[in-house]
Write a structure and sequence with these properties.
681 residues, alpha+beta, D-amino Acid Aminotransferase, Chain A, domain 1, OB fold (Dihydrolipoamide Acetyltransferase, E2P), five-stranded mixed sheet, 37% helix, globular, disordered C terminus, binds 2-(butylsulfanyl)adenosine
Length: 681
């Protein structure tokens, strides 16, 4: 036994560890320049965790071990901004920028060139962070500029927001430091999030900004913690009893030295011409930026001059946003139609007079939901402005000309446009649903999903064939697929005897499958590939899954209340049970053994999390290989995780792993582990 340490010694040791970890977090998350290896970092984190666990009295609320912790809130509190959060006026051309510069010189009665800081205008969500004596106390959204929402627990989950600032560069930490910044969701993370949502039948986010806002405005910080949000700090609020910054440029570098993250693209410009050149340069590389930006902000560098210039109608006279030229086109909305998705949700879509936009012909644009249509007041016959930013799908910005005579506002149909059944809408929800589980539109989508690669993988059962099968009444529910005969198929359009036989072959082959593929194939809301696998592993049979109570479902790894409820609802529906029964009777599935956790193999009983982009395999391939080697794949990193496989551009999960001291390996290492299978298995 080591000699007993006094409480003071332990507290000092904990504080020393916290300081080291904060320093390395800063190197890693803010500067992107780590000084120590992951293993060394892990060791520090583990020591601190152990110390705080064994001696809770030395733990502190600002400890790096305590990012996620707060319980879900009922609603957000209100935070009053000590100084209002202003907005920026816009310039749309170089002429307007030159005009802006001239006005400033006029107001200052000066001919001399004005120094500006040029920054990227990030398309995210404005927040304010309040630090008291260097400790992150309160974080809020912009709100109406005067009062915002208290989102402190959510902001604490963002790794690039330090929970504690550190004095450096000869500057002490101010008594009070308010900084404003932009919370963003990087483009890649946005795409991934939407892919996951699509697979689980959840509504998609229209753009990264909405996704960032939706992620930050979560009552449950655990959900926020799963989204790889990032921040760039860009402006001061109230700062007291600290170094007095004279310029924006000095401020940016000052807060960077305190541990806050600033955008590395910002530049000091000696004149408006340099700002214009900066805009040209950023415009050229805008699509390569890992996040969405909608322009460049020019700010008068000197705070003294800023003060002299003041503000008008809540916009400062000393700053302006020079917007990027959007890739835009105008066209007419011929019709607004409603698409019915797999789970019966209705999506309004504008059918457009075809138009060229950034090299692609556009004839449809999703209007997302009724709220969105109402807000923009888009009606049939109107001319609309379409826009395409980066790699995001084109969307309707606004109506530019009313049709005449103007059509009445769009209404969600009361009856399903495809089957005529009632449409339901829950109070306070944006989504509308067709109630008919047999709706042909839903059926088409359901079959497409059922037959897709990650489900029953029925080759040849493509969109055109599915549409014909449903329209001709040959397939009214999933089970009908397995009673189809080659002669029936051969009579359909674009089908010969040969292709009909091939499809029947694929259908027959799909009878040998694994339970997770079938569960995924059922198309239960919120149940995608990953959840299906967890369910299959946990319950082992459709019968047990079907009869599982909500409580039993909640006991399954990674399954929360929403998913559990959705599964219960699915099986509570008599029609679904009957259809499933028929499917099982007709298909007579032969379930192949699911590569089971706890089985043999080099990854026996290991829980693995995949993150980032893998090069050798797709996610699904990697997951299957891990399962085949006896491991488990989980979607979130916890203390129970054995290791994290980090691909390129790994984000929050990698960080979480580092914080928790979970082992991190790369793809090569995973391949090495898997290749030991032969030796053991
Ligand atoms: S400065 C008065 N800098 O744009 C100064 N704002 O319309 C206002 N924004 O709500 C903030 N990137 O959230 C500033 N580099 C940047 C910015 C930026 C994005 C947002 C900001 C604000 C809005 C102003």
């Amino acid at each position: 036994m080591a000699e007993e340490k006094s409480l003071e010694e332990l507290a000092a040791e904990a504080e020393h560890l916290r300081e080291q970890i904060r320093h390395h977090n800063y190197r890693y998350y803010v500067l992107d320049a780590p000084e120590i290896s992951d293993a060394e970092y892990d060791a520090l984190m583990r020591r601190l965790e152990a110390l705080e666990r064994e001696h809770p009295e030395v733990a502190t609320p600002d400890s790096p071990t305590r990012r996620v912790g707060a319980a879900p809130a009922e609603k957000f509190g209100v935070v009053q901004h000590r100084r209002p959060m202003l907005s920026l006026s816009n310039a749309l051309s170089a002429e307007e920028m030159i005009e802006f510069d001239k006005r400033i010189k006029r107001l200052l009665r000066s001919e001399a060139d004005i120094e500006y800081v040029a920054e990227i205008k990030l398309d995210g969500l404005a927040v304010e962070l309040v630090y008291e004596d260097g400790v992150f106390k309160v974080g809020s959204t912009r709100g109406d500029g005067y009062n915002g929402e208290d989102v402190t627990p959510n902001l604490r989950t963002i790794r690039s927001i330090p929970l504690k600032l550190h004095a450096s560069g000869g500057h002490r930490v101010p008594r009070l430091l308010e900084v404003r910044g932009e919370v963003i969701l990087p483009r890649k993370a946005f795409q991934k999030l939407n892919e996951e949502r699509a697979a689980a039948g959840e509504p998609l986010f229209a753009n990264p900004r909405n996704a960032a806002a939706g992620s930050l405005r979560q009552l449950d910080p655990k959900i926020t913690a799963r989204r790889p949000l990032d921040i760039f700090c860009h402006s001061p609020g109230v700062i007291s009893n600290g170094h007095k910054y004279e310029t924006q440029w000095e401020f940016l570098h000052g807060i960077k030295a305190l541990g806050l993250k600033i955008n590395p693209e910002s530049r000091l410009c000696r004149s408006i011409d340099e700002v214009l050149a900066y805009w040209e340069r950023i415009t050229a590389k805008r699509d390569e930026l890992p996040y969405e930006a909608d322009g460049v902000v020019a700010k008068v560098n000197s705070f003294a001059l800023q003060e002299q210039l003041g503000e008008v109608s809540r916009s400062p006279r000393w700053a302006i946003a020079y917007k990027f030229k959007a890739q835009q086109a105008e066209t007419r909305v011929n019709k607004i139609v409603v698409y019915v998705g797999r789970i019966g949700s209705l999506t309004p879509v504008a059918q457009l007079e075809p138009v060229q936009l950034a090299g692609v012909t556009i004839s449809n644009a999703s209007l997302h939901n009724l709220d969105e249509i109402r807000r923009k007041d888009v009606r049939e016959g109107d001319t609309v402005l379409l826009e395409r930013a980066g790699d995001v799908i084109p969307y309707v910005v606004r109506v530019t000309k009313h049709g005449h005579p103007r059509k009445p506002p769009f209404q969600m149909p009361r009856q399903c446009p495809v089957c005529g059944s009632a449409i339901v809408h829950e109070e306070g929800e944006v989504a509308y649903f067709c109630v008919n589980v047999n709706c042909p539109a839903r059926m088409r989508e359901s079959i497409r999903h059922f037959a897709s690669k990650n489900c029953l993988d029925i080759d040849g059962l493509g969109d055109k064939l599915v549409a014909q099968l449903v329209d001709k009444g040959l397939v009214r529910e999933l089970g009908d697929i397995y009673t189809l005969r080659a002669e029936q198929l051969a009579q359909l359009e674009r089908m010969g005897a040969r292709s009909a036989a091939n499809v029947i072959d694929s259908i027959n082959r799909s009878r040998r499958t694994t339970l997770d593929r079938l569960i995924n194939g059922l198309g239960i809301r919120h149940v995608g590939e990953h959840t299906a696998r967890q369910l299959a592993q946990h319950f082992g049979s459709i019968d047990r899954l079907q009869h599982a109570s909500e409580e039993e479902l909640l006991a399954v790894r990674d399954i929360g209340p929403e998913v559990a409820r959705s599964i219960r609802e699915y099986f509570a529906e008599a029609h679904n049970r009957r259809a499933l029964q028929k499917l099982l009777e007709h298909a007579r599935f032969e379930f192949l053994p699911m590569p089971e956790a706890g089985g043999r193999g080099p990854l026996r009983d290991k829980t693995v999390v995949l993150t980032g982009t893998l090069k050798q395999w797709t996610r699904t391939e990697a997951e299957r290989k891990i399962l085949a080697a006896g491991g488990r794949v989980s979607s979130s990193v916890s203390r129970k995780t054995d290791f994290v496989v980090a691909g390129e551009e790994a984000g929050s999960k990698l960080r979480r792993a580092r914080e928790l001291g979970v082992k991190v390996i790369d793809e090569q290492e995973l391949m090495r582990m898997l290749s030991q299978q032969g030796a053991e298995g």
